[in-house]
């Protein structure tokens, strides 16, 4: 099979045992509905949309509980934030319908929602103040660094277990590592691992707020913490080298120029009559402009998070589903997700927004399809558009797919060429990981 198993970067078994030891292990693990209920309790979120303004006003009083310096907060250990949560698809068939897709496997978009909720709760567990039932912090998802899968199929009739803990801490941000396993034959087998970055803000979600420092307790934990530092540096390097800031490398310029030469239509009288505008599509190829899908979502109160903005997990689910549909339409066969990376939450989405999603095939190689989904909100009153997220998904198709080709012109770099190179960069980074 062309599908490659990823190397799971999960906690070493020794460390996993360390994290669970000393915790009050209960015979019944909490489920995802309890995770969301717990989050509402921690923040004091309203259960009725009409009460949301009052609930947010009440949070203002929590300002006095914020630390003035990080040094004033007690340090925490990795095992202090370690959580295990069950998704009982096998033992509670009544919840299965919500997670089921037409191929009789689990909807990955729902898993993205669950990971987002769990990541936030893990961070609230790390920052918990013993004497305070409500947290003064507004903890929100800043970035999905990466999610790598090592199973093509997530079965809809077997229990799923999520585990996770805070793995690295800055002044106001936290990295969370989560793992998902599924029960087969009495044992839990790895399905995916995920790395999220969360940020802490004040009670009104306006300014950064300090979080408890993290103290590694063993060589394994030191290694995980060090990896968190490296992840941060990698993100800075990747951002610094962005095509929005720097010109393509010499190798990338050659790639674009080769594509340009290979798509020139030379079937004319004499070489001197060849025009930059005369283009032909190579065999088994598709122009990038013909490899996209669009969608619109009205953001209802039902999809709000505990801070009465649109839930980040919902945005991820909608973007993933459009990305999957784009890959399915392009490859004319069922695509399987193998990686999600570099999802930056640039701007919150307000309830009532018109959310415009655009899915684009950016790069292809053999059976692989790299999809970029651009998310923006449209204000009907001002007619303004604002980007909220960029999503990157790597799929593998059942069959080899056509080559996607950007239209370049005049030896210069078009928007499509930049998208192509950016997609190639993301694909190359994913292939190094798995």
From TrEMBL:
GO terms for molecular function: carboxylic ester hydrolase activity; fatty acyl-CoA hydrolase activity. Keywords: Hydrolase, Mitochondrion, Repeat, Serine esterase, Transit peptide. It is found in: Mitochondrion. One of its GO terms (cellular component) is mitochondrion. Residues 81-204, 289-401 form the HotDog ACOT-type domain. One of its GO terms (biological process) is acyl-CoA metabolic process. It comes from the Eukaryota. Belongs to the acyl coenzyme A hydrolase family. This is ACOT9 thioesterase. The gene is Acot9.
